[in-house]
Structures are given as C-alpha cells and as structure tokens.
Design a protein that fits this description.
The complex is a heterodimer of chains A (310) and B (388). Chain A is built from 13 helices and two strands. Chain A has 310 residues and is mainly α. With 388 residues, chain B is an all-alpha fold. The chains are: A mainly alpha (310), B mainly alpha (388). At the A-B interface, helix 4, helix 9 and helix 13 of A face helix 5, helix 11, helix 13, helix 15 and helix 16 of B.
C-alpha cells in the first residue's frame, strides 16, 4: 500500500514535469504547426543555465532568470531562424529543429562537458515535508508541483482571461481574420514560442535538479514528451495533461513493482515463453509509454482528445 | 541501361576494384563503411526522398537485421551460404516492415515522424530485457570465416569483403532505380506530393506508404547484414536513435533528390567519423552545423547544390566569389569553435596546422574576428531568408 501511495505521488510530480514540457510543445504546434524537436533541448538548456546561475546568484534567482533567458532565446530562434523556413513547409522545419537539437547537445557538451553536473536543490528543500503512509515526502517534490501548478495556472489565466489570450485563441483558429483586424500574428507567434521555451526551461531548472543534469537528458525526456503529445492527441492541451499524468504514474508504478513477469501474470505464466516470464516488471517501465503509444495508434489513431487524424 | 548508367556503374566498379587491390587496410575499411552507409542511405532515400516519410526510427530495421544476421552466422556455421547472408537481413527487414510498418504508416507527416521516434525508442529500450538476443552491453560478435563461401572465396580478408559489399550495394541501388520507374514508384511520388489527390485517384495512401516502408525496411535489412559482416560485431547502438539520426543526416546532407546523394553523404560522414574525429573533439558539432546549414541554404543537399551551380556555371559565369566567401566563413567558424573548445577543455586540438598558428595572442584576435563574422553570418542568413 505505501509503495503504491508513494509511487502515485512521485508519478504526479513526474507527470507535472512532463506536462510543463508538453504544454509548450502542444501550444506551439497548434498555433504554428511546428513540431519543435529542439523543445527538450531548451529544457536541457534551462537546466544548465539554472546550474550556472544558481552558483553565483542562488537557486531562487536561477529559477526566475534562467526561464527568462531561454524564453528570449526561443523568441530569437523563432524570429530569425524558424520564420524564414515557414514557407518551405513542416518537414523543413522539423528537420531544422532536429539539427538544432543535435547542435545544442554538442554545444552543451562543449561548454559543460559530457558528464553529469552537480545541480541540486538548496538544502532548505531537501528535507521531508510530511509523512504519507509512513514514507516521507521530500519538500522539493512539493516545490516542483507548486511551481508547475503556479506556472500552468498563470498560463491558463493568461490564455483564458486576458486580452492577449483572446488574440492567441483567435489566432489558433482564424489567423487570417486576426491579421485583418490589425494584429501582428507573427509577433503573437513569436511570443508564444518564447513562452513555450520559457516553460520548458522552468521545467529544466527544477527537473534537472530533481533528476540529473547531463547532455543526454534532452533525448531521454524529449521522446517521452513526444509520446505524451501523440497519446493526448496532437494539439490538445487537455489530452496532453491527461496523457502526462497517465504516463508519469504508469512509469513510476512499474518501477516500484519488484516481480518477474512470470509471477505477475500468475496462472497465464504457464503459457508464456520462458524468455518473457523472466523479464522483470520494472524493466517494462522504459517501454511502457511507447507500447501505450503503439496501442493507441492501432485503436484510436487520433489520440485521446485529438480532433482530426493528422 | 542507358550509356550514362553503364558508365557510372563501370566507374564505380573500377574505383572499388582499385581500392581493393591497391589500398591499404585503412582505406579498404573506410570504403566498406562508405558502401554500407550508402546502402542504408539508399533505403532511407526511398522512404523519405521518394515517399516523403520522415522516419526517426529507420535504424530499427537496420539493427534488428544486423542482430539476426549475427545470430544466423552462428546457426549456419559450415553451410556454404556466405554470399547470400544479406538475404537473411532482407527477410528480417521485411518482417519488421510488415509488423511495425503497419501501425506507423497509418499516419503521415509530422505524426509519422513522432511515431517512428517512439518506435525506435521502444525497440532500443528492449535491449536490457533480452540480453540473450542483444548480447547486453558487449553486443553480439561473429566471425566471417564461420560461414563457408558459396564460391570458395576467403572472406576473412577485408578486400574480398569490400567487393562483396560493393556487389550488394549495387543490388540495393538497382532495386531503388528500378522501383522509381514502376507505376508503384510513381504512386509513391503522388502520395508524397499530394496525398489528398492521390486518394481521389483511387490509391489507398496508407497502403502505398506501407508498401514503400516494406521495401525500404528490406533494403535497410540488407545494409544491416552488410554492417554486421563488415565489423564482425553488432551492439545496441545499431538499433538506437543515434543510427537513425545518422542515416537521416547523411541522406539530407548528400541530397535526397538523387541516388548519388546518399553516396556523397556517406563519404562525408565516414571522413568526419574516421579522419576529422582524430583531429578535433568538435567533429560532431561541425557535422550538425553542416546539416543545419544544408537544411537552411541548400534543401537539395550537396548534390543538388552542385547540380544547380553547374547549371548556373553554364549560364552566367563562375560563382567563384560565392565559393570563396563560403570557404572563408567555414574557416572562421572552425577557428572560433576550436578556440572555444580549447578554452573550455584546456586541451589543445590536433587539427593540422593549428600549432603553427601561434600562441594565445593571435588566437584572441581570431576569436574576436570569429565573433564578428558569426554575427554578420546571422544577419546574412536572415537576409537570405527574407528574400526567399
């Protein structure tokens, strides 16, 4: 029971981290049709910037400044590099962002080395906050959830309640009409891209401290975020939210199970080949999101909340 | 065969023979590597260039075929079937294409790209679960001499292996060439250019994509076997995203438009991997930079660029100035990156000629000019984009 409870809580934290990435990715995709391969690289850049800034300025400042810097970088990226490519279609953009992800990873290795850097939460956050079924819940995980909820909540308020959000929502469905009404949609796109980058970087600062900060972190999390977006349905924020929590919980639950597959499926094990029965359930954790994605493709190609078969 | 094709094939055969007969073992190794990558790139060209499917998981077919071939070499020990081993790879590729290809080809465009990425990760993540098949971290080894040759040739030597690889890559080339001229090849073009209209014309676009994926997987399987035989070892790297990315990068850098493109890309990647990596640790950075520059400035790749400048050459004189400018910029980029690396790592690069450039003062000047040029380059890039 306590294992399940603590896994569920951990899954919640991880799911929120995934959603912070998936939200920006989905928003940018539904606005501009760009599937930004370098999104996870911006997450990594956020983690490294947080690491670099936390030393001289302290962790709190790093949490605020690193997303700002990466957000501005995202704006510049959209304005100078992606916008001129737009006329050439989505495949060119996808290729370009893929190359960019490759370059950013090499550049990070160049500046900070290929190993893991020592990026941690300050000691104040390392203690335990409360006991949950006998297991202590570390304060930094609560901090992660709080930051994620605050960021996503203000994003929601921005999009749903303000005038700027009104223009963004209008540009989602009727970009030409919004342009005709005198709004500069290109600029709106640029700021949304920057916002998505800043969100990814924020996830990076806290995610890098909770997990590890290393050059392979972008590919590790990036592919899972893509899976989240596909399962949730391309361009659907609600879908991405549900899928992120689902995958977060599924992965942490599977890791916690200390059984072999043969024991887990009990009676059925007699019919399973020995190779499969010997596999540990926890080894299924890295595969689970992808298996879920393939199953989703076969049963419901548009994803949980997707509106069309893209 | 047209005279041009005959000429090209005989030139290819002559160069391969020359390398096999006269080259030292390093040259022969490099040539084999180029040919393996070329076959792999050709299969990717069929997938991406001709059917418009941008796959980030093509290494699955390549890698699984390589693993199965390595195991097949053990099972078939003593049988005189060595020359036919790539057929095992083709079969494995075909099965992979049938099983994995069906779900992924239901989608197209961006969704297809993301789904293949997930598929690649799915297979790569399996390697810890099945250590018997994937051989764990160490991989699976084989010996070429275990399987007897059909023609009585000794494949323990590298030069005979090079000739066999060349033969099989010609088979792959012929398949791609022949397919392009069939009605099916035309259908793939239609599905790439305008899926909606192809749908109206009566093609099931998903099934055309699936068929193309099947052939590309089988050809990638041949390349996988060739790689397993050439290196006599297969590790999990063969199915990983790294290999998928490599084939994508080399095909795009060379040019997706022609069968020559993957060859140019394969030569480029091999030179970077084997020669430039000895000089500098930044070679992957340059490789990525060339890719990004090609996507930005020359979507048709190096071959497309060469063709275009050849045509322009015939029209309005040489483009020497553009060439000189590009070379100068590349030179400054290299100086800038190398200096940055040296400052970050505190370890001198072994780039030829770097030592004679002199000590820190000169490098500081170069760093400054490199920065200026990088800014100027960004502006020029932007302006070029604006004109387009």
């Amino acid at each position: 029971m306590d294992i399940i409870a603590s896994s569920l809580l951990n899954g919640l934290t991880y799911g929120f981290l995934l959603f912070m990435l998936a939200a920006g990715l989905t928003l940018v995709f539904s606005l501009m049709g760009i599937m930004n391969f370098a999104h996870a690289s911006l997450y990594m850049l956020g983690a490294y910037m947080g690491y670099a800034l936390a030393r001289p300025l302290g962790f709190a400042t790093a949490v605020l400044v690193a997303p700002l810097l990466v957000g501005l970088l995202g704006c510049a990226l959209e304005r100078w590099l992606l916008r001129p490519l737009h006329a050439r279609g989505h495949v060119a953009e996808l290729l370009f962002t893929f190359g960019l992800a490759f370059l950013i990873e090499e550049a990070v290795k160049l500046v900070w080395g290929a190993g893991v850097v020592d990026h941690h939460f300050p000691p104040a956050l390392e203690g335990s906050l409360f006991q949950w079924f006998g297991t202590p819940y570390p304060a930094y995980k609560a901090f992660m959830v709080a930051v994620a909820v605050a960021a996503l909540g203000s994003l929601y308020l921005l999009v749903a309640r303000t005038r700027v959000g009104l223009i963004v929502r209008a540009a989602l469905t009727h970009p030409m009409m919004v342009e005709n009404l005198g709004h500069d949609t290109d600029r709106v796109f640029m700021w949304v891209f920057g916002l998505g980058s800043a969100l990814a970087a924020l996830a990076g600062v806290i995610g890098g401290a909770a997990l590890t900060t290393e050059p392979s972190m972008a590919t590790q999390l990036g592919t899972i975020v893509f899976v989240v977006v596909v399962i949730g349905g391309l361009g659907s924020i609600q879908g991405a939210f549900l899928a992120a929590l689902l995958i977060g919980m599924l992965q942490t639950l599977l890791i916690a199970v200390d059984l072999r597959l043969g024991q887990a499926i009990g009676m059925l094990a007699r019919y399973a080949p020995a190779v499969l029965a010997d596999v540990k359930v926890s080894q299924l954790a890295p595969i689970a999101p992808y298996a879920l994605m393939v199953a989703m493709l076969l049963l419901r190609p548009r994803g949980l909340f997707g509106r069309r078969d893209a | 065969m047209t005279p041009t094709t005959t000429l090209a094939v005989s030139a290819f055969a002559a160069v391969t023979l020359l390398i096999a007969l006269l080259g030292d073992s390093f040259m022969v190794q490099l040539a084999t590597q180029v040919l393996v990558l070329w076959s792999f790139g050709l299969s990717y060209q069929l997938l991406f260039g001709r059917t418009g499917m941008l796959s980030f998981g093509h290494a699955v077919n390549f890698g699984l075929a390589a693993f199965f071939s390595a195991h097949a070499a053990h099972w078939l020990a003593g049988w005189p079937v060595y020359e036919l081993l790539p057929l095992v790879g083709a079969l494995v590729g075909l099965i992979c294409g049938a099983v994995f290809g069906y779900p992924v080809t239901r989608r197209s465009g961006v969704a297809f790209a993301m789904v293949t990425l997930g598929l690649g990760e799915l297979v790569a993540a399996c390697f810890l679960m099945f250590p018997g098949f994937f051989g764990g971290e160490a991989g699976v080894t084989l010996r070429r001499t275990d399987v007897a040759s059909l023609l009585g040739i000794d494949y323990g030597r590298t030069d005979t292996q090079l000739l066999l690889t060349a033969l099989w890559s010609l088979v792959v080339l012929a398949t791609v060439h022949w397919l392009a001229r069939t009605p099916f090849g035309m259908a793939t073009l239609a599905v790439r250019e305008n899926p909606q209209r192809a749908d109206f014309a009566g093609f099931c676009t998903a099934n055309v994509r699936w068929a193309s994926y099947l052939v590309a997987s089988a050809l990638a399987g041949v390349a996988g076997t060739l790689s397993a035989l050439a290196y006599e070892i297969v590790t999990v790297d063969a199915v990983s995203l790294h290999t998928s990315a490599n084939v994508l990068l080399l095909t795009v850098i060379g040019g997706v438009g022609s069968t020559l493109g993957p060859l140019v890309g394969a030569v480029f990647l091999t030179v970077m991997q084997s020669v430039v990596s000895e000089w500098t640790r930044a070679w992957l950075f340059y490789y990525g930079f060339v890719f990004v520059a090609v996507v930005w400035l020359a979507p048709e790749g190096i071959v497309g660029l060469a063709k275009a400048s050849w045509r322009r050459h015939a029209h309005d004189g040489p483009a020497t100035r553009t060439m000189a400018r590009a070379l100068g910029m590349a030179f400054l980029l290299v100086i800038f990156t190398e200096t940055a690396y040296q400052l970050a790592l505190g370890e001198p690069t072994r780039l030829p000629g770097w030592q004679t450039l002199g000590p820190g003062a000169l490098q500081a000047v170069l760093l400054g000019s490199g920065l200026t040029v990088a800014l100027w380059l960004a502006r020029a890039l932007h302006r070029a984009g604006g004109m387009r």
